[in-house]
Amino acid sequence: MKNYTLLVGLLPAIMVTGAVNAAELYNKNGNKLDLSGQIEGNHYISDDKSEDGDNSFVRFGLMGETQVNDQITGYGFYQAELTASASEDDGDNGSKTRYAYAGLKVGDAGSFDYGRNNGILYDVGGWTDVLPEFGGDSYQQTDVFMTQRAGNLATYRNKNFFNLIDGLDFAVQYQGRNDANDRNKSERNGNGWGMSTTYDLGMGLSLGAAYSSSERTNKQKEDGNGDRANALSTGLKYDENNLYLAALYAQTYNMNLYGGDDRVANKTQNVELVAQYQFESGLQPSLAWIYSKGKNLGHEVGSKYYSSEALANYIDVGANYHFNKNITAKVDYKINMLDNSAFTKDAEISTDDIVSLAIVYQF
Question: In the record, which residues are listed under signal peptide (predicted)?
Fold first, then answer.
């Protein structure tokens, strides 16, 4: 069978870690260093002028590994992104660090690393974050507690439950504070912890669940929503015979931002459904539904009070075409189902559709 079947399983990992299909820079005496990269020419088409236009970027990553002895392996990963849409005279050109962490793996005892990494909730959230361009955003938000990429994360992972139960993985994570009392001055989160478990049942079917609980910063608590931000995410996926299906349900409390003024929803209920099929020709069509309902919002517009409103609701229709493992063309159509109401206008929530057209080169 052609390598397209393998690619459909690898592509999400390529986008997240950049460690697959990497170019080997050095491999000697138990020390390895790999270079990975992604160059994407991407254009958005939308009536929402804040979204419409060039969205091109380049990412590059370095993955290092050293064999300390027959049981201990040291590793580190760094990935940066540079925005290509900014002018050369623009000093703030959108460059950022996506990942930067280092750790140790000790045989069947598991691995431990620290740095900027994926939050523990993404162990399940990543199952539906596989669309050609959009998706993975019902509750997953960058630098919002442990929902997606975030800083100050210490993570312990164990595969196959100490090598006793095949397919049963678990992880425990601690996040240090990022607030006004910390040198980052970011007001992102207080101290928190989380855990996840996933179980590969065989025949392509997996189940997963993740939980996190964090202190909110003093500034965040000024909204009166509560002292802690909590989340629970559950999911299942099927990945076999060129077919990929995934479903996610999650609830968050005092955690998710919405709207242009960075309001915080007291509670959200979130659903993500994804279906994809990989043809041997290289074509991979994709269909998804992403939904987030805000509860107890306490949002007032004039004399009207909004308590329960949809914060995200769209159908996503797209496709990848993999010419080979290095070059992909993709199109993604986000069909926005939100109403253009007084609430969405006041909260600055976009209700416009977006079409993404892109060519991706990766190694």
Answer: 1-22
